[in-house]
Design goal:
Shape: globular
Strand order of the largest sheet: 1-2-4-3
Structural class: alpha+beta
Helix content: 10-25%
Distance between the termini: 39 Å
Number of helices: 2
Low-confidence stretches: none
Radius of gyration: 14 Å
């Protein structure tokens, strides 16, 4: 509550770039390499009933990859997270 989410769309060379940034609690460094793995949940307190299936980011990453793009997440604890999608322009 009281935090913002930012969305930007730009062009960098022959790529379209979409960035989604938040001001949330961030993702711990040890979890970042795994957040796009199927069924991975960084918050062990979340279960399937209350916290989803752990498939969302793996589907996002696979879809973007199938389109020839890349998906990257950077994060800093207590400062937020940035998800960046890069897709080739037609």
């Amino acid at each position: 509550e009281g935090k913002s989410v930012f969305l930007s769309v730009s062009r960098e060379g022959d790529q379209g770039v979409i960035k989604v940034a938040d001001e949330g609690c961030g993702i711990a460094p040890e979890h970042l390499p795994h957040v796009t793995e199927r069924f991975y949940r960084a918050d062990l307190a979340r279960n399937r009933k209350e916290g989803g299936s752990g498939l969302g980011l793996s589907i996002v990453a696979a879809t973007i990859s199938s389109l020839g793009g890349t998906f990257e997440i950077t994060s800093e604890l207590c400062s937020g997270t940035v998800a960046t999608v890069r897709l080739p322009l037609a």
